[in-house]
Structure formats: structure tokens, C-alpha cells
Recover the amino acids of this structure.
């Protein structure tokens, strides 16, 4: 396998946009790639309690070795630590980077073509769990500061907020942000993810949906029964099916009273921004292997994907699930349901409404537990910071940035936006086939180099700009 | 562990009812118990293809060693063999015994207190997979013929029909019976199962429900998706939930049009027979750990259990089922549904109606497969053969027989009743805690001895009677 130290850097797309930075990135390359390999080789699966402490320590060490003026490891009881770092700079302004050092579980292992913790370099890519989500963006940002540092003092103050529970719903993140509100004060924030789309344009994302993740369960007899008693013995599988069918019908509308009360419709500028980006629904259907979306009109489907809350069965199980027939009446049944929320829905409020609805619909016996909750957040497309990042991305990549007013996915933008009141734009080192959360997660070496270059350019422009 | 040869026979309950038989049973005891241990030690799990051929051979060998005049192993392609045996007798009449040599899978193994294939004898019991269902009844019947043979010629012709697929829905049983219709001709049939209830009364069962066991499945995208696309990508878990909820609602009524068309209400004599047997719904609820049945009125519940068809979810699965949250939109969902049928419902007809209902209710995308089908059958309580068996049971056990017009469970009585036109009564060697299909399946030695005694008495009386 090629070693990081001897792996040549792919050519940058627009070295002429900032020739001094381009040369400095080239000089930094070997170290940046070695740091990335080292970080990926440190497992950090919050869901499995695997390597979390060690990875927080390694992250802190990378900051220290890169000349940070302050590096702290924050702790809360029962929580993954948060790594905080600060780099002094000349200007008045402060840029905050949000990242996470935790990653998804690597399973199913048999579907990887090289071991997930190996960070194997091949065919112009690095393959490993967490390389795209979110270790390469983090290492690229630290490398970008070293790039700028090699040319002179930083043009602004830079802070890093690196959490360790993003992949399990950022359980303690809001507490951390609240507790360190003053310390984290900044003028703008660069979020963790992004990359280059199928047409080669850099993608910027301004918002995330929220989440209310609920487990529903029902209990019948004290153990599985012979199904011959099905005429009279309560069946938790039926109870759960009926409760689920009450939540949402084939029309896709969630039937929990008040569920849509706090849904804010998209603004005119958000709609304009949506329509400024091409969308290919036919390609999406083909990739998914489906005939049709659940929303018939493609334009409506696109808006629903971004601006409508969802109610999705993520899984369920009960009774016998093996091959062939087994005549059993199950004792228990469970289902996982996630609801993607939009501004201004509140997961606690949605959960209370769900509980009340179950009670009032005759399903008081169905247990419900809120496993994870997050609020949605969106930065307006017209914000000057959005324009600045779009400009630097275009300069660095040589193609216009495509601005997504929100992802359909969820993440903890809300605590940062709510507590710190900063605009947020997400950009990263991935591409359309990075396979985040899936086997063979990878990034292209070229995108990693380009990400360092873009981040260096962005910090410099941010220090100069009024935005 | 005590050896079968040196395990003393428990005292019979009513040795005075037939002192010559009682003495002969005592003489047979060691051999009968040794045969039973040997048969249980031969695994024979049709569902797992484990030991089926070997167990058929061993069964045939037991018949040969017991003086059968004809022993045959019948075969059909892809089917477990059927073992047929015939014992000549003096009278004109022929009694048929139906048994099966196959047993349920032993899993979960960790819940057994002694290995399932060990047939351990302890505390007056024999513990092993299949000992109650249905190896002890089979061995007791063969032993009973040796008991009678030790006293003179058999008073009637006796035939044995021993199948090897009862626990997987008797897939080929009807074909076997049809193919050997003439050979199997008889005047009456003793079915495979039964025992002594909690009050010490021998139980006789005259009927079995039928079965239509269906697997439903739905398919969404070509692989599991990130659940953020839940607003527009079809979710097979939802499709299945809605299809299931369409089949049956919380009122318990099956909504498939025509489902109840062929349901025959119980006759007056069946109802009289039901009410002649005590029923303790409170004890049943307590055993199950439930507050209430799904049918509020206890009398209605009792009749529903016996005379109403069911629609039971035996299991379902889709997507993520591990601990905590995982935001996935599943690619597939499956459910197992069993419908217990009553006379004169036909599983093929019920399945066609189900398919049509799904198609007409907007669920043409939900796949359905009939895994197993059986028709119900009941012998009228007033049949003279029922009265004969009730009389011999009462004589052998010293307590009145309790007659169940039907079990709530299913089994292949229909092919025998339909093809051979014989009355059927089921009786066996079990008791209320025999744990058929469950870990620690067992019988009491006393019930085994009593079963041999009763079977010998029954064959003798059958040979004598006009019934």
C-alpha cells in the first residue's frame, strides 16, 4: 500500500486563484495525509463506546502539534468529551469550525473491500470508516491553518468545536454549547460536511432538519404462545401495527393532531435558492431502483424532501422471523420510528403530541420512548457569509457553488445557531460516492487537497472581508 | 441417570378394571420405556432435515420387532417417508392409529435443563424433545399391542399411519393418504395427542382447526437508504403495516371479503359438549399474565377459541432492530400471518380471497405466499366411537373423560376424515405441563404406563364392540 509520505498530491483545480496558497498546500500535503491516516486508524464509534477517549486525545494532540494557542478537552458526566481549540489571529473577527471526531459503526464488516480502520490508499482514494464523515474535513481545516501559518499570522481568530456524539444524535452537545457560550462566541461557523456533486460543483448546505426518534413497543402475554389462542389472547404485533397505521396512512400525511402546527413554510428566497440548483429526480429514482416517489409531482416531491417533516418506520420486529411457517403468537413487538422535523418543530413537543394521540386513539398500552431529539435550523441564503463562502468555493474549485438551503438529513446546527447566533455554511471533502455511513466509505485524494486549499482561502478571505 | 431397564413402573390408577391387562403392562414396562428412550434419542426434526430418514427406519424397526404382519416405508419425491404397519387380528373391524415421528426443533437449547436428545429420566418424568409430541403416544400404542399379544390373538385388525411432516404442516400427508386409500381403510381412528388435564381427567379431542399460513412481504428501494429521504421514497415497512391493518382491525374482525362465508356454526350437540367441560378463563388469563382477552365476554371468548377462524401476526421484521436509534429507511419488510380455519373453510380459497383483497385495496405491491394450508375437521360428539373411547378412558383412569369437540390448534385430521370417512378421537400420554414445542418437553412415567394400559383396553373393547 502506498505510504502517506510518498503519495503525491493530485494537481489542484485552480492553483492560479491563490498561487502562494497553492504552493504552501503542496508543502503541507504529506503531513496532512499522514495526519488523516493516523486519525482514521483510531476507531471512535460512540454507539459502541469504541475508542472515543483515545480519539479525543489524538484530536487534541493534532491541534497542539499544529500550533493552537489553546487546546481543551471538555467533559460532562456520561458524555463523550468535546475537543476545543483556538488559534489567535490578527483581525477582529472569529471563525468557528464545527466538526465531530466520532464515526458510524463499521458493520457490516464483510462488505468492506479493505479493513475499515486501515485507511488504505488506492486508486486515488482513501478508504476507511469516518474518512469522509468527518475526519478528512477536520484534518483539512487544521492543515489549512498550518498553510496560512507558513505564510504569516492568521488574518482572524479561529475556533474549533469538535464533538464526539454526532453519530448518536449529539446527545450532550447543546449542554456543552450552553456551558461554553462565551468561549465559543464567533461571527460565523463552517459546518462539517459537503463535497463535490456529480457535475463537479462544490456543494454548500445552509440547514439541517431536526429529529424525533421514537421507539414504540407493545407487550402481550408473559411469553410467546402457541398461535392457536389467537382468537382471544392479545397480540402485541397487531397492537403495534394498528398504532403505526393510526400515525400515518397511505396518503403520507401524519395524523398526530398538531404535528404540522409549527412547520414554517419556505421563504421566497429559500424557494429561489432551491430552484437555482438543478435536480434530477429521474436519476434519483433510477439509483434507488424505484418506479415512483410517494409524492407524484416531482416539484412537490423536491419541496417535500427539503421542507416537510417525515414519519418513517426505520425498523420493526416481533415473533418468528426465520424461514418457513412457525405458529407463534408473540409476547412483544417493537418498532423504531424517526420523524425528521423542520423549523420550528420541537422534538419534545412532537413527542408529547404523539403520546397524547396514542392515548386518545385507544393505544394507551403502546409504550413510546423518545430516544433522540434535535431541532431543525436554517441560515438564510441571502446572508453575506453565505455569499463569501460561495465566492471562495467558486474561486478554489473553478465552478459555481451549488447552494442547498437545507439538507434532508439532521444534525446539531440548532444549538450553535440558537446559542451563538452565527450564520452557518457546511462544506467538506466528500463527493457523490463517498458512502458515508456505508461500507467502503472513502474520499478522493484530489478532493482532500482541494479542501485544504479552499479552507485556507476561506479563512484568508474571511479575515479580510466585512462579511 | 436411572436406566429405563431398572426404572420401576408407577402404579396404575385402576388396575382392577382389567387385572390381566394390568399385569401384562407391568411385564412390558421395561421394554416400552427402553423403546421410548431409544426413539427420543433419535433426532427427527423435519424443519431442519435432521434425522428424518433414520427415525423412519427406527420406527419401522420397532414395528417389526413387535410382531407387525406388514411394515412398509412409503415415499414420495421430496417428502419425509411415511411408516405404515399392520397387525392382523381376529375380528372384522379395523382400528387405525395416526401418529408422527417428526418433532419440533429443540431450540432455544439454553433453556433446557437436560439435553433435548438425552431423554433423561428424573423425578418421575422423561425429558426430551418429542417425548410428548408425539413419541410416547406412538410407543405406548405399539406396547399395548404387545400387551394384548401376550394374552392371545388381537381382537381386531390394527393399522398404523406414522407421518414425518406433522410439525411442518403435513405438506405431503394428503397425497400419501390419497395414494394409499384402500390400504388404509378402517372403521375408526385414534389420533395422536392428548393426556390428563389439571384436574386429573383424561382429555379426548374430536377435532382440529385448519390453517392458512401466509408470508407477506414488500420491497422498496434496491437497498436500505438513509431515512432522510423518507418524505418521498417508498417505505416497505409502511406498506406492510397498512396492508396488515387492512386485514384486521382492533375489533378483531377479519376484513377480507368472503372470509367468513364457509364458517359452519357449531351444532347443538357440539355446544352441549363444550358446556359439559369446565373452563377456567381466570386461570388461563393468570397463566398468560394478561388482564383481559380480546373478546370481553368469557363465554363468547370460549366459543371464539373453538369455533371462530383467526388471523394472527406470528412475526414481522424490517430495517434496524438493534439497540438505540438508527436512521434507516428499510429496503424490505416481511410478516408471517397464520389464519386458523374452521369447517368448511378452504385454505386455497381463503388465500385467493386475501390476494384479491390486497389487490383491490391498493396493495398489489405487497407479495403474498401461502406457506402451508390445511382444512379443519370435527367428528360429532354423538358418534358411537366417541362414546366407546370415553368409556375405556373412564375405566382406565377412574375419572370421567373430558371431551373437547375441537382443539384450537391445527393438524391433518381432514385428509383422514375426508379420504377414509372414519370417526377420529385423539388421546395421548401428556399432561397439562408437558411443554410440547417448548424447552423441557416431558411426560410423567405414570401417564406413559397409564397410556399403554388405556390403549390395550381400548383395542380390546373396540374388537368386542359393535361401535
Amino acid at each position: 500500500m502506498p505510504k502517506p509520505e510518498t503519495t503525491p498530491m493530485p494537481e489542484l483545480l485552480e492553483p492560479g486563484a491563490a498561487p502562494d496558497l497553492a504552493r504552501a498546500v503542496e508543502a503541507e500535503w504529506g503531513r496532512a495525509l499522514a495526519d488523516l491516516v493516523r486519525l482514521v486508524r483510531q476507531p471512535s464509534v460512540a454507539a459502541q463506546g469504541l475508542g472515543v477517549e483515545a480519539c479525543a486525545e489524538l484530536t487534541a494532540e493534532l491541534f497542539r502539534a499544529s500550533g493552537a494557542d489553546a487546546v481543551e478537552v471538555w467533559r460532562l458526566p456520561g458524555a463523550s468529551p468535546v475537543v476545543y481549540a483556538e488559534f489567535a489571529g490578527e483581525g477582529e473577527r472569529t471563525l468557528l469550525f464545527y466538526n465531530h471526531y466520532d464515526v458510524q459503526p463499521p458493520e457490516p464488516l464483510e462488505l468492506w473491500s479493505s479493513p475499515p480502520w486501515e485507511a488504505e490508499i488506492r486508486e486515488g482514494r482513501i478508504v476507511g470508516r469516518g474518512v469522509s464523515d468527518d475526519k478528512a474535513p477536520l484534518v483539512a481545516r487544521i492543515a489549512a491553518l498550518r498553510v496560512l501559518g507558513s505564510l504569516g499570522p492568521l488574518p482572524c481568530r479561529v475556533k474549533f468545536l469538535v464533538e464526539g456524539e454526532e453519530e448518536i444524535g449529539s446527545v450532550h452537545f447543546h449542554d456543552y454549547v450552553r456551558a461554553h457560550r462565551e468561549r465559543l462566541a464567533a461571527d460565523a461557523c463552517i459546518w462539517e460536511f459537503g463535497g463535490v456533486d456529480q457535475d463537479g460543483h462544490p456543494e454548500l448546505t445552509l440547514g439541517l432538519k431536526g429529529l424525533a426518534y421514537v421507539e414504540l413497543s407493545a407487550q402481550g402475554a408473559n411469553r410467546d404462545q402457541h398461535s392457536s389462542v389467537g382468537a382471544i389472547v392479545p397480540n402485541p404485533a397487531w397492537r403495534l401495527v394498528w398504532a403505526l397505521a393510526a400515525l400515518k396512512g397511505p396518503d403520507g400525511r401524519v395524523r398526530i393532531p398538531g404535528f404540522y402546527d409549527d412547520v414554517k413554510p419556505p421563504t421566497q428566497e429559500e424557494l429561489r435558492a432551491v430552484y437555482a440548483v438543478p435536480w434530477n429526480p429521474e436519476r434519483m429514482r433510477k439509483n434507488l431502483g424505484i418506479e415512483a416517489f410517494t409524492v407524484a409531482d416531482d416539484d412537490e416531491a423536491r419541496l417535500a424532501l427539503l421542507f416537510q417533516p417525515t414519519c418513517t418506520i426505520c425498523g420493526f420486529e416481533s415473533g418468528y422471523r426465520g424461514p418457513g411457517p412457525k405458529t407463534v403468537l408473540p409476547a412483544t413487538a417493537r418498532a423504531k420510528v424517526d420523524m425528521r422535523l423542520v423549523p420550528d418543530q420541537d422534538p419534545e413537543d412532537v413527542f408529547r403530541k404523539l403520546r397524547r394521540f396514542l392515548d386518545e386513539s385507544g393505544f394507551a398500552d403502546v409504550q413510546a420512548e423518545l430516544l433522540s431529539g434535535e431541532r431543525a435550523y436554517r441560515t438564510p441564503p441571502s446572508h453575506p457569509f453565505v455569499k463569501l463562502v460561495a465566492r471562495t468555493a467558486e474561486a478554489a474549485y473553478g465552478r459555481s457553488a451549488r447552494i442547498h438551503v437545507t439538507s434532508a438529513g439532521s444534525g446539531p446546527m440548532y444549538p450553535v445557531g440558537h446559542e451563538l447566533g452565527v450564520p452557518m455554511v457546511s462544506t467538506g471533502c466528500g463527493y457523490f460516492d463517498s458512502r458515508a455511513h456505508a461500507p467502503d466509505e472513502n474520499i478522493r485524494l484530489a478532493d482532500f487537497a482541494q479542501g485544504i486549499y479552499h479552507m485556507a482561502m476561506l479563512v484568508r478571505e474571511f479575515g479580510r472581508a466585512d462579511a
